[in-house]
Amino acid sequence: MAQPHLWYLVLFLFMEPRASRENDAPVMVTGILGESAILPTEIPNGYKLENINWASRTSVALVQPEGQSVKIITTHQNYRDRLNVPPNTYNLKISPLKMEDAGSYRADINLQNPTTSTTFTVTKNYTLHVYRRLAPPKITLTFVASENNTCNITLTCFMEEKGEAVKYQWTPLGEQAVESNGKSSLFIFQRPEDAPINYICTAINPVTNNSQSKLVQYPCAGMPMSSRSLWFILVPVLVLVPSAGILFYLQHKKKKDADSPSTSKVMALKDLPLSENQLYDEISMPKAIVSNPPKEEEALNTIYYTVQKPQKIKNSCSSATKLLGTSTNDSVI
């Protein structure tokens, strides 16, 4: 049979806290930007606190009890003058909160058993969330007139200053509500005979909420045209406008071509070489008949070309070329 003192030893091992232990899941703490957040320590009764070492991404502070008060040694400048520890609870209070305060925290709580004078460490983990206090959301309204005088309406609710974990609720709910990209869209339908309805959008985050309302009374009045009818107008316009532009361009080009001279002088008369065997042909372009044109204009509207006969020319001396055939070897057609 085991000695009695062995049973006391086994019982003592189960009752004595371990030298170091850590909480399984982090404690979730929420706070509002510019206000305060408290990280609870929950010191067990019957144990003497030696100190608490607080840390986050960097070291935060060292807390030591001194009689009836508490000594706080801030170890990071970001938390200077923003920490407070009540002597009765030793909870860490951070105020005023900044957005960068959000994140994981760790408290190493060093305790002493007064009976055995043994020391051990209890480690607690925290997750701090910092949220903005929500302002009233904004509501925008868009609508499209459809067939049968039904008005398709979309109400969009959003926050001008986007925050973390913001959700939206509509009252009344309407046909369908969809949330995406930090906004909530409510789809509703109204007819001219329907009574006006006041829709309320409520923005919610874990620490606060705020609402905005919008009175909807058939906004499609004076716009009976459906989207299908609108397409019947847009499609012909999209086809006719480019066609009219092309037609105008062709007419302008045709007019420009018509204004240019109908005949061109291929070679000036004075540049023609003198030869006995020259044949002149006059080609006139179709043009409006002008009575009694001046001789100078007639000469400008005449095209001359030379046909060289395949025969040996004995005499190259010849008189100057004349218009309308004055030489015996020149022919004018």
From TrEMBL:
Coarse class of the primary localization is: membrane
Q: Which UniProt keywords apply?
A: Adaptive immunity, Disulfide bond, Glycoprotein, Immunity, Immunoglobulin domain, Innate immunity, Membrane, Signal, Transmembrane, Transmembrane helix
Q: Please list every transmembrane segment annotated in the UniProt record, as residue ranges.
A: 230-250
User: Where does the signal sequence lie?
Assistant: 1-21
| Gene3D superfamilies linked to this entry | Immunoglobulins (2.60.40.10)
Show the GO cellular component annotation of the record.
external side of plasma membrane
Cell location: Membrane
* InterPro entries with a match to the protein in the record: CD2/SLAM_rcpt, Ig-like_dom, Ig-like_dom_sf, Ig-like_fold
The Ig-like domain is annotated at: 137-217
Q: Which GO terms describe its biological process?
A: adaptive immune response; innate immune response; T cell activation
Q: How does it sit in the membrane?
A: Single-pass type I membrane protein
In its keyword annotation, does this UniProt entry include Disulfide bond? Answer: yes
- This one is known as Ig-like domain-containing protein
Which organism's genome codes for this protein?
A: Vombatus ursinus
Q: Which gene encodes it?
A: LOC114026382
